[in-house]
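## Example record

The block below lists the input lines for one assembly entry, exactly as stored, with component labels intact.
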Amino acid sequence: MSRIIEIIQRLVGDFGVDRPLLLGLAILAILPFLATVFARQGIPAIALAPRDGISRTVNLVLRLAGSVAILAIVLGLSGLHRREQMVARQGTGAHLVLLLDRSSSMDNSFADRAPSGDQEAKSVVAKRLLDDFVARRARDRIGVAAFSTSPMPVLPLTDHHEVVRAAIAAIDRPGLAFTDVGRGLALALSSFADDEDEASRAILLVSDGAALIDRKVQEALRDAVARTPVHLYWLFLRSRGAKGIFEEPPPGENTPQANPERHLHLFFQSLGVPYRAFEATSPQAVEQAIAEIDRQETRPLTYFERVPRRDLARPAFVVATVATALLLLAKLAERKLARPVPTVAAARQEPALRRAA
Amino acid sequence: MGVRLSHDWRFWLLAVALLALLAALLIPRLTLTRHARDLLVVIDVTGSMNVRDYLEGGEPVSRLTTARHAVRRLLADLPCQSRLGLGIFTERRSFLLFEPAEVCENFAAIDGAIDAIDWRMAWEGDSYVVRGVHAALAIAGSLTADLVFLTDGQEAPPLAGGALPPFEGEPGKVAGLLVGVGATEPSPIPKYNEDGREIGFYAEQDVPQENREGPPPEDAPSRAGWNPRNAPWGGEPATGTEHLSAMREDGLRRLAAQTGLGFAPLRDPASLSAAVEANTRAHPVDVLVDIAGIPASLALLALTTLFGLAALIGHRPDRLPA
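Predicted structure tokens for the full assembly:
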């Protein structure tokens, strides 16, 4: 029994109806087998007409036509459609989580001042460039996570980039106090937990600073990275006066407390996954870094293109129209059996339609 | 010699069926106006939202879970071309997660985002609901969306003197709804340690029972141990029931009146959609509606009548031909 259901499911799996209850009307399709469109006419004996194949075929075709017409209308009315299909294609792209810093320092310009005149806030620059970036990467599955004082999942991985861009549009809203990168990164890694695809996975961290990562969180991150290998990109929006991540600080100042950004960079390097950091001190540099990431993340990817749902109501009505037209033609060709002077010879001339009647 | 078709009801029914089907194929789609909404949903994620005072399937569930379920139901009920944005509230701020996006196309992502809302996203223990609503109204105003704010109305610390902070915006400029989440009977608030594990409930002295910012209240001199310099609030620690949480309907109604929002208590998740519909502004959008079903139904009726009637009429004619 379950096998039969399985076979049926495979057959109809791609198709669906909007109003399944209306399918009950399909029982009406047996009516054409109980009656015909022709007027009943009395003949003294059925033996008068010889049995012949053409008559039988015409009879069957007309009954089927009635049945098909009714069935097609019922299917059309119940909203028959082919479901939205996912077609796997090969392309280039990645599964990407944008991990965005929403701390209040992002609201300052690169000169670390309140934005004024021609100087944009870092969050505004990030918003504009990330929006362009997402617009260019049409085939990526993108998720969004934010972090500040606490990590915040914003969007799960999705193919629908409109909502991703809506989330990016929200990043220039006033931010919160702190920058908890570690927990944010753990959250971004957990976004890939349900992602079993073999696509290239990447996390793009956009932040303008860093903080110490708790030793416990560090260990948790190492575990998570070992389980979920990702490519890590850090776009460091460096404000004027902030310490760089690539320069070796003078001895004595090289502590995680004094240089949290540099030590975060070292920590990322020690994770053992492909990692690249970009230090951007101006909007142009950010643009170059994003273009570089765009170039890097172009590994082959099986992506799914959606073929939208296709309504089949109209084709169903076309079938019903053809079947009904056939019935009407047959009806127009109907002839009375009884003639004013019935003769045996006349009865023999038109056997086909008479049997059909 | 032909049958006299004009006298044959079968012919007429067939003709009607064919004409109706042709009409179904040729009829243009009708442009109808539907009512879509632009909403900003803000969910309170403060500690008091962890109170389990709802029942779902016989299991106690937290206010936050119920609020999430209600918003997911709301999302499913919104007509296409509506837009929904999401924010969370804690401390004194409403934090926008994403701007309103179209609900049908982005359904799975928005649904997943709502489901991921958790009390762990809160960045502070404080809960200045009034300021949070004021901030959310400002955000909703800048997005030209209507506000749906789900909260239990528990202020922590409580409002100084019970008075609402002044509202700087224009009441009623942003339409929307305050949704009171929680039961009206007070329940204890679960307490979590820094790893996020539940370790019991808040006790009376764990939470501020009185707001001791600003000038002391007028009745302070009559309190025990009062000293104008050393103990302007009285010498005793404040006592009260702030460690128990119920939905503060009075406070929320006052806040709704101050800001020009509507108020609706959340009795069960299914009730949110109707309340939102009543309190937010719909804007008309054009949708194409297929009305081919009407003539097609007529065709089905004609064919069914034709074959049904023909089957019912006896198999034998009344009389043999002469």
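Chain A has two domains: 2-83+310-356, 87-307. Chain A touches chain B through 68 residues (CB under 8 Å).
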